[in-house]
Amino acid sequence: xxxxxxGAALRAALRAPAGGIGFVPTxxxxxxxxxxxxxxxxxxxxxxxxxxxxxxxxxxxxxDLARYPRDFARDRAMCEAVGVxxxxxxxxxxxxxxxxxxxxxxxxxxxxxxxxxxxxxxxAGVATVVAKLLNLVNPERAYFGxxxxxxxxxxxxxxxxxxxxxEIVRGAxxxxxxGLAMSSRNTYLSAEDRVAALRLSRSLGLLLRRVAxxxxxxxxxxxxxxxxxxxxLSLQYLSAVDAEHLGPAxxxxxxxxxxxxxxxxSTRLIDNVILDPHGPDAALCALPL
Length: 289
Ligand code: PAF
Description:
Strand order of the largest sheet: 1-4-3-2-5-6
Number of helices: 10
Radius of gyration: 19 Å
Oligomer: single chain
Bound molecules: pantoate
Number of strands: 9
Shape: globular
Low-confidence stretches: none
């Protein structure tokens, strides 16, 4: 595996690879969710590039940039083990040299709702860094986890609107055995908060079961009540939206996604489900309450 730290070295390493490039951008502190994206890229592409960059532009002033977990040696070994060919690990100065003055922003229709309403500037930070990374790596396919559904939706729209020659692939959510969606931020959770955090995935399982024989609004109200019954958890939103435009949904189905965000102590967690009992998240139906 090659490790490169500058854009120029990356471009030189990636000239015309056979089989196309699959790219998995990350902020490091890798877990099985990232590994499954890297394995998918390994299966589907000739060359696999991963990046590790904790992007300061996507953190708000009161968010966890300074304490975001980092372990480069461990991440590097995990990338190597899964068959990553090139690991791009730039410094902040490499990505944002003095005078950097450009921002990529996607319309508020997609970025001013859900997490975007609570994290002003977050998606502009994500779109800006991903646009730069896509230009550096020039992949055939770039892989993003469904756990960050809104991020995947925003980046798909950006890539389409700006004619990036890259397919923005959405990889399935990887969960712990008890249903908690994997996230680098799970490492922040106390033992009590770890138990309370199970309510996120369980509320989505409840919702998925209920929409089979209840109107969507009623099912959402039941799932919301279940979340609000846990005092350690402060619910930010539980919403069902149209998966394409992120506008309010009126009925469940393969084109509807329900998203949840909650604060547990100082940790913010998110999760989501495609509201189709026969869809990719059907296993959530089996989660207990
Ligand atoms: O999902 C993430 O880890 C980040 O938002 C990403 C896509 C690597 C951009 O910094």
